């Protein structure tokens, strides 16, 4: 399996929204590809919520946060979302990508969001825990920090099955590791089914 330990992507966003019908939305999303490229978006990764496949989390990569902000606010995106059947107002979170060791294939995944006392200290413990994650069935991961709060960490963990990823997310070992790493409060965990990836460069 091909993984990349670092990322050249300097900016990203997660856009979360509900759609009436995934197939109809996907047709509109694919038709909007040229507009994304022109706006400076360099790639995407689509995830569907495990318990509600019509709730989507779309990861968009770019070279600058300004490009992502402009795209998220563009009339073109709003019109495409409306015609593709997006329900309600999308939630946009800007990220600063750190590490990308994802496996570029459809996989069950968990998105974990938590606050840390100190990112550098947290990251050291996270890196040291790599062997434990692999033993638990984690086949890939990505680490991001919120652009507006660098001590809020967004982690994408992949496994071959939803059972594996849920078991890891609820394990006592993970809870002990997070405590040792300085995680503040309980993490927010969302289980998703990863779909396809695309690079525009």
Q: How do the helices and strands line up, and which of them pair or pack?
A:
Elements: E1 11-19, H1 22-31, H2 33-38, E2 41-49, E3 52-62, H3 65-72, H4 75-83, E4 86-101, E5 108-116, H5 119-128, H6 130-135, E6 138-146, E7 149-159, H7 162-169, H8 172-181, E8 183-199
Antiparallel strand pairs: 1-3, 1-4, 2-3, 2-8, 4-6, 5-7, 5-8, 6-7
Helix pairs in contact: 5-8
Give a written overview of the molecule.
- The protein is 33% helix and 45% strand.
- Helix 5 (119-128) packs antiparallel against helix 8.
- By secondary structure, it is of the alpha+beta class.
- The mean pLDDT is 94.
- Strand 6 (138-146) and strand 7 form a beta hairpin.
- An eight-stranded antiparallel barrel has the order 1-3-2-8-5-7-6-4, surrounded by four helices.
- The relative contact order is 0.22.
* Unreliable residue stretches: none
Computed over alpha carbons, the radius of gyration is 17 Å
Largest sheet: 8 strands, antiparallel, barrel
Structural class: alpha+beta
Kindly report how far apart the N and C termini lie: 21 Å
Q: Write down the overall geometry.
A: globular
The strand order across the widest sheet is 1-3-2-8-5-7-6-4
Please give the count of helices. Answer: 8
> What pattern of helices and strands is seen along the backbone?
EHHEEHHEEHHEEHHE
Mean pLDDT: 94
What is the number of E strands?
A: 8
Strand content: over 45%
Q: State the share of residues found in helices, binned by percent.
A: 25-40%
């Amino acid at each position: 399996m091909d993984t990349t330990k670092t990322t050249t992507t300097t900016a990203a966003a997660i856009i979360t929204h509900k759609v009436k019908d995934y197939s109809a939305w996907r047709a509109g999303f694919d038709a909007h590809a040229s507009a994304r490229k022109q706006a400076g978006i360099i790639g995407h990764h689509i995830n569907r919520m495990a318990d509600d496949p019509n709730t989507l989390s779309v990861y968009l990569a770019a070279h600058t946060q300004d490009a992502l902000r402009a795209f998220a606010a563009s009339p073109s995106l709003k019109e495409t979302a409306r015609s593709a059947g997006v329900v309600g107002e999308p939630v946009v979170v800007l990220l600063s990508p750190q590490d990308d060791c994802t496996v570029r294939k459809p996989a069950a995944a968990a998105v974990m969001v938590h606050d840390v006392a100190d990112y550098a200290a947290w990251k050291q413990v996270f890196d040291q825990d790599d062997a434990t994650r692999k033993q638990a069935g984690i086949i890939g991961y990505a680490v991001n920090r919120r652009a507006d709060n660098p001590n809020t960490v967004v982690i994408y963990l992949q496994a071959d099955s939803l059972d594996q990823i849920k078991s890891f997310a609820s394990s006592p070992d993970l809870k002990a590791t997070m405590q040792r790493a300085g995680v503040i409060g309980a993490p927010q965990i969302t289980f998703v089914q990863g779909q396809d990836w695309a690079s525009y460069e």
